[in-house]
Specification:
Number of strands: 18
CATH class of the largest domain: Alpha Beta
Shape: globular
Strand content: 15-25%
Strand order of the largest sheet: 5-6-7-8-9-10-11
Radius of gyration: 19 Å
CATH architecture of the largest domain: 4-Layer Sandwich
Number of helices: 7
CATH topology of the largest domain: Metallo-beta-lactamase, Chain A
Length: 296
């Protein structure tokens, strides 16, 4: 629970505030961009909600915050907002909310599918979310993009008897995983799903492409909100920036409209525009390698 005595000084006066326990994970800015802003070390309330819709968005951010760093001066209606999660994105794809501090506030997603529902990476394991997922038919598969964002996947696996999927190079984070991805070939385990190994951020990083429309990109790829372009980060390429560049170029052979990342802003673009943005990113990444700096 946020502590009013520890609220960061950048907050504008009013009902909502952010305290100093914030890890600046970007969750609140994704959910309520009109209210929260990046203060460098933490987020802060830039503008108090001006209408019921913005208030609802701020309450979703309060619930999703991994560190409980968002508070209100008075009792709020967050309990009535719990049912907003999982939050619909499009065509049976949802954002789970309740980001976990165990994955530094990484996003997770839920996919409704007639052959069994999928969880992509893991949120906190909370009764309200578990009940919501039960109402939607439970979980058959848990796809883990990489070792950083497994959070409470084991608890979801146990609860729903779901099969966890992870690459062998990152298996140490989930030693009991039921399905192990090996090598770098693209896998199509069931209709509509492609598992694409994308080593770089970690050695075993993978992305999931659903219906050639939704790319669940983990920490491989995201949308840079301020620059208005696709992005990746050399500073967090724990395994290899060169390999991440090669992995990114491999995605040019795929079509998709959505990038749904673990960290960073999600984005939907027409397929041809998405392809151009991805090509531009690959070129920037190649240029950085030619500039002589690499962590290989």
């Amino acid at each position: 629970m946020a502590d009013l005595k520890k609220k960061v000084p950048e907050n504008i006066e009013g009902e909502f505030f952010v305290d100093s326990s914030c890890i600046n994970c970007d969750t609140c800015r994704q959910l309520a961009p009109g209210v929260f802003e990046d203060g460098g070390g933490t987020s802060f309330v830039r503008t108090q909600p001006k209408n019921p819709e913005e208030t609802r968005e701020a309450l979703r951010a309060l619930l999703a915050c991994p560190t409980g760093s968002i508070g209100t001066l008075h009792e709020n209606a967050s309990s009535k907002t719990q049912g907003d999660f999982p939050f619909p994105i499009e065509d049976g794809v949802y954002y789970c909310g309740y980001n976990s501090p165990k994955s530094f506030g990484g996003n997770s997603y839920f996919i409704e599918h007639p052959e069994g529902n999928w969880l992509v990476d893991s949120p906190k394991f909370l009764p309200s979310l578990v009940r919501s997922l039960e109402k939607r038919g439970g979980i058959a598969y848990i796809f883990l993009t990489h070792s950083d964002d497994v959070a409470e996947a084991a608890k979801y696996s146990e609860k729903f008897k779901a099969r966890r999927i992870i690459h062998e190079a990152d298996q140490s984070s989930q030693p009991g995983a039921e399905v192990i991805v090996r090598g770098t070939d693209i896998l199509e385990p069931i209709q509509d799903f492609k598992i694409i190994p994308t080593p770089g951020h970690t050695q075993g990083h993978c992305v999931l492409l659903y219906r050639d429309k939704f790319l669940f990109s983990g920490d491989h790829l995201w949308w840079r909100r301020k620059r208005r372009q696709l992005g990746a980060s050399q500073s967090v390429a724990w395994f290899s920036w060169r390999r991440q560049t090669e992995s990114m170029e491999k995605l040019l052979r795929q079509d998709f409209e959505w990038v749904l990342p673990g960290h960073g802003q999600r984005i939907k673009l027409p397929p041809d525009e998405m392809k151009k943005e991805l090509e531009a990113l690959v070129n920037r990444m190649k240029s950085s390698l030619e500039g002589g700096w690499s962590n290989d």
